[in-house]
Amino acid sequence: MLPMLQEEFVQKYHWLTNQEFLDAIALGQITPGPLTVMNAFIGYKVSGLVGAILAMISSYLPSIIIVTLFAKFYYAYKDSPFVDSSFKGIKAAVIGLLAAVVITLGRESAVDISTILIIVGSFGIIAFSRLDPTFVIIGAGVAGMLFF
Amino acid sequence: MNLISPESKTNKDTMGNIQLKDICRVFFKIGAFSFGGVYSMLCFIERELVEKRKWLSNEDFMESVAIGQMTPGAPIVNTGICIGYKLKKLRGALFVTFFQSVTGVSLSILLAYFYISAQGNYILKSTMKGVSCAVVGLLAAIVYKMARKTIKSPTLALFVIASFLALFIFKINAIYIIILSGAIGFFVFNKMKPI
Fold first, then answer.
1. How many structural domains compose chain B?
2. Of these four, A32, B32, B66, B154, which has the most CB atoms within 10 Å of its CB?
3. Hey, CA dihedral for B69, B73, B79, B84, is it positive or negative?
4. Is this prediction's ipTM beyond 0.90?
């Protein structure tokens, strides 16, 4: 999705400079929730508060429509042999995909012993205990602030 | 042989007790604390909805993740929408969409208003570095849990490994991997079903 955004907003319409686009991405990563909130930033830069709201609505509306239709169809036919068997394959594939993401992200982040410690520590806490992830995130943020 | 079955009635029975306002509250919390990238939210959703409150079974969760990956748009957002729909139909989908992003959006607008550039701030950078490491660990934990609960046969393990290699080594587009795994899954698992 990112290259498409860059093409449209920076190259085609010139609503943002490249630097502002990078800022938007950084902002999207700092704020909680999905990356798409950066669209609010872009919308705001272009047309203030109204622009931000419109940007968010138009980003989400197609997703809402498509996903809802898809889910409706899926849950209606979920027990049919076709859907059931193909989704068995899909679910397994998704695990593999996410595992690949973990490795890719891990390779980027694990640059030294302290980063590796945080990664392993968070994994351990979430995988083997009932601690709320909020604390892990906050703890890691504090650790980052202190040690990096 | 009837290939199509009506919508499962059991879903409606168990889902009746979940209130819309509870859904809003939980997704607001999820949306507010999932710093550090999109996969953070996945971990929070799993914790809150599958483990703590048991609103979703592991199966349901995996389905929503799969559907989220298959549909156009941000995968995590779509997963949230799918869960919202499953819990409370269209209203659920709409409310989840709103609450999972409202904190992030508001923060985003606020920061834009003060034009606080995220790039130069040193303290922010180091904090986020710690957080992104944590998110890797979080995602790894989720993958580990999902793998433990889902991989019950060597065939399934093969699917996991194959798609991992397809993305990681061969860099095939995720959408193609999903479509292919669905097609192959249909042939492989359908044959194994007694007729």
1. 1
2. B66
3. negative
4. no
